[in-house]
Amino acid sequence: MKESIIIQKSKLFAIRIINMCKYLSCEKKEFVMSKQVLRSATSIGANAMEAKFAQSTADFIAKMHESLKEASETEYWLELLHETNYIDDCTFDSLYSDCNELVKILSSIIISMKGKQTGK
């Protein structure tokens, strides 16, 4: 079975964040924000994976909404890391763009599923 685009993209994004966090902890000795962004970024895909086995449409929407919340939180941590000069412009722009894409995909999935749920 082919994986969904949100699961593929969120996993690739999580890997990039994991590598950034390794760099931040080893090279920059930054541990607090990197742990926060690591937690929120890896939760995006974890919640999307859980949604695959949702018990109902409402449960699926709830899991996807949780992924959306984690993606939004990840954007916040990336902004803080950038504005405090822990990550450079290029790294920020690339990661933030990827995260924003996940937000858009998740929002679209949620809107689509809510429409199906209500018959619209």
**Largest sheet, if any?**
none
Shape: elongated
H/I helix tally: 4
Residue share in helices? over 70%
Q: What is the N-to-C succession of helices and strands?
A: HHHH
Radius of gyration equals: 15 Å
User: What is the typical, i.e. mean, pLDDT?
Assistant: 96
Class derived from helix and strand content: mainly alpha
**Terminal residue distance:** 28 Å
- Number of E-type strands: 0
Q: Per DSSP, what share of the residues sits in E-state strands of 2 or more residues?
A: under 5%
List low-confidence stretches.
Answer: none
Features:
4 helices, mainly alpha, elongated
Task: Outline the structure in words.
The protein has 120 residues and is mainly alpha-helical. It is built from four helices and no strands. It is elongated. The two termini are 28 Å apart. The mean pLDDT is 96.
